[in-house]
Amino acid sequence: MPPRPFDKYENSPNNQATCKKCCRKILKCTMRVGIVARSPRFGYYVKYYHRECCSREALRKLKLPGCSGKSCADTDDAVNNKLAAEIMRQNSVRTAARAEIQRRDAADGIDKAGLEESLRRFRVQVGDANGWTGKYYLVFTDNNLDEILEKLPTTRKQFLKCNGLGEKKWSRYGSRLVALVRSFKNKKKKKKKSSTSNSVSPDRGAVETLTAVGVVASLEPETMYIDHATPATPSRRTLPVPVVTPLAGADDEICIGESLTSDQIVSRKFREAERNGDMIALD
């Protein structure tokens, strides 16, 4: 037989539990007490009660995780302190879990805080559109919100894997929700791509030589040199262009008033050679 689980003292996460004493529903966000019972057939299970429906004796005997199985004194103050300590423990656990999620989100580079705010606004918009004003948990609960922030669904299959999100909710607003999550993921990719391009940007002061059948052009924007005697080297890129006959006035310096790229300079020289009749055709 496994060890007896801990009892519970918590905020009701939903409206599903029924008090075993008064037989009324335990409303969401109200305090409820879960006392572990044992069935010979099914083993351990939990019976839920309203906080007001439990006697001081039952509260005193609660086995809570923060109390290490020790019972408190038989006074109202001692019982209240015990229950308050359990609430503080639950809050600290939630805070630590949220801090861990935020740490992982910061490593991933996704703005989860902005995404959470957008999802909350989206929940309000969908709730108001469906007449659920004040009952936005019908769209999705805070637990569903935490799971969306953790799994980041961007497809229908991933959306349906989140707890509490089924086919019905997908047909209503699922495509819009995954589009919202996808937009934040795309922002991350664009930011990463821009940072990478900035880190590998070439030095504008560097000079690259392009050889095109005896025509050598510098990347400096003001000056271009023509040199027919310069042989092509492995470090230079040879352009697949027509053969150009040697031009008169080798080693002439041509000053250009506007800033041109090397490709534009070479293309201009080819056009000038064609106008002057210096181009030859290859069979």
Largest sheet: 3 strands, antiparallel
Shape: elongated
Instruction: Report the count of strand segments.
Output: 8
Distance between the termini: 94 Å
Poorly predicted residue ranges = 200-256
**Class of secondary structure makeup:** alpha+beta
Q: How many helical stretches?
A: 7
Strand residue percentage: 5-15%
Mean pLDDT across the residues is: 74
Provide the spatial order of strands within the biggest beta sheet. Answer: 1-2-3
Helix content: 40-55%
Give the SSE string: EEEHHHHHHEEEEEH
Gyration radius, in Å: 37 Å
Characterization of this structure:
With 283 residues, this protein is an alpha+beta fold. It is built from seven helices and eight strands. A three-stranded antiparallel sheet has the order 1-2-3. A three-stranded mixed sheet has the order 5-4-7, with helices on one face. Strand 4 and strand 5 form a beta hairpin. Helix 3 packs antiparallel against helix 6. The chain is elongated and about 110 Å long. The termini are far apart.
